[in-house]
Every structure is written in structure tokens, then in C-alpha cells.
Amino acid sequence: MTRLSKFMKKGLFLAAAIVAGVSSQSADACTRIIYQGNDSLYIIGRSLDWKTPIPTNVYVYPRGMAKQGSDRPGAVTWTSKYGAVYAVGYDGGVTEGMNEKGLSINGLFCKGTVYDNDTTINRPPMSLAMFTAWLLDMNATTDEVIAVLREHNFSLSGATFDDGTVSALHWGVTDATGHSAVVEFNHGDINIYEGTTDMHAMTNDPSWPQMQAIVSYWEKIGGRNMLPGTVSSPDRCVRATYFVTHVEKTGDADLGASIARTVLFNSCVPYTYTVEGEPNVSSTQWRSFSNLRDLRYYFDLAVSNGFYYVDLNKCDLRPGASVMKIDTSKLLNACGDQTTMLQPVPPFTPMY
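Predicted structure:
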């Protein structure tokens, strides 16, 4: 037996033990990657996976809109400083988005998240349906988002969905410089982990420090020797981290989007695949890619024949402009720039 094979055999036992220790909590399937190209090109890719359909449409909101974070008394209120594109689930809640300053924020499922405690519960209410929109509307950089979160002058809450599933999330934040953060709530406390060139991928639970310990272990083995292949959260994070750091760097927007897309394919779940009793280990329903330099927001439905984007540079984001929407279910054969397919609509009604 070679020295490498002995190391790998010993390591595989350790990896199995690590994954077994978190597997009861890591049955969720969303993945986020950061592709760092040349010439200041950063592309954020993410997948959304679930057993039952989560219809998601693309909205563009202008600056200068008065909003509130909840319909409860004393809720957080604001007037948006920046225009943004959102992915809106059920036409009632912002899952993710990118604003005109090149700030991207993505919410991913994370079991065990608890948003409030006795000291935060009476702060101004903020609904999960509007939380990501609030951060995108009011901040240009990751540092600004972190400053708002450290103030923590809000009480975050969400409704259950899909037969009682708790809306437990954590967030990835990246700005146009590549400065990134992972934001996690732990019984009312906000844990923020920052990085630049070292935050390549995130999935679901366990928490960020535990996940990075698993990723670091597999980096010692080396992806050319072996990569874990299941749809579990740690395995997907390991694969995504390896591939997004071992592909060609480019400054070309189209090629960069294609590279990021194929990297993300390695962590997606095949369409119609399910695990009995685990609705969250299920089909990838859609993927998105946010080009933070060129302000292109790509959307990629699993059942579509095309891969298209909205160009925020071509959108009217001036105060008083219309809210615009793409009904993604009606754009299954589109490719390339589909900014002209945006249609004026009333603002969506938050679902909670």
C-alpha cells in the first residue's frame, strides 16, 4: 500500500466520522459559489433545491421606494437608496438579489437557525420576506451590511411553509470588490464571518466554522485524488470549493458565466430526484448567477431550454420608475439578454 493510499484510507475514516456527526443536521440542498475571474470579475452562483415547487420570478425595483419590513406595529421602515433585482419566491418573499452597486445577498436554508432571544424579541419587527431586500436597498458594500447587522436594531421572524417547515436561513454577502461575509443567527446572536479570497462556497448546515473544518480536511486529500459525491451539504460544499478554485480565470463576462454555471452543476441535485422523508434533499429548481462587475443577473430554471440575464445597466432605476417583472415560467426558451422582457407590475405583497 502506498503512502498516499494509507493517508487516504485513514483520512476517509476521519471524514466519514465528521460527516456522520453532522449528517442528521445537513440534509439541505442549496449551494452558493464565488467565481473570481480577471479584471475585477466576480460572479456569484447559487442553486435552490426543494421537493415541492417554489415558483420564483425576477423583479427589478427602482430607488426611492418607501417600504416596511413587516405589517406588525413598529416595523422597520426605509426608503430605498439603490435599485435592485430580486428573486422573489411565491411572488411574496425575496430569496436573493443584486443591487446597482454590485452587492449580492443570497439566503440559503440552514437547519437549527434561531433568529430571536429574550433581548431581541421586542425590537422593530423585520420579516424574512423583506430582510434581504432591506439590506440590498440600503447598502452598497459588505462592510455597510455588516455595520447594520452589528447594530441589530430589528427582530427577525418568518412564517412556516410547505407543511410546517421552519424558514431557517443563513446568508452569503459579496460586494463588487469580492469582500464577502457569511451571516448566521444563533439563538438571537448574529455571527458574521468575513473573507475575500478564501470564501469560495457555502451550502447549508453545519455552521460556517464546522463546514470549513470539513473543507480543509478534504483539501489535504486533494480533489484530483478523491472528492465526496453525495448530495449532503458538506459534500456539495467540498466539491464546489474545489472546482471553483481550479477552473480557468477570465475577464470575459459570457465565458465567466459559463464557467460558474458548470461549476455549480457539480453541486446541483438531478431533476426529479428525492429522498424519502427529506424534502430538502431534492431537485435543483433553479440557478442564478450575479455578475457584480457588469451588473448582469442570470436566471436558469431547471426545466428551461435557455440561460438568460437581466442587465441592470439597462433598467430604469430612477425614483418613480415602475417595478418590473419577468414571469420565469413564460420564458422557458429564452437565451441571452432578456432585459426588454421585463414588464411593469405592482409591487409584490410580502407573504408575512
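Summary: The CA atoms of residues 41 and 111 lie 32 Å apart.
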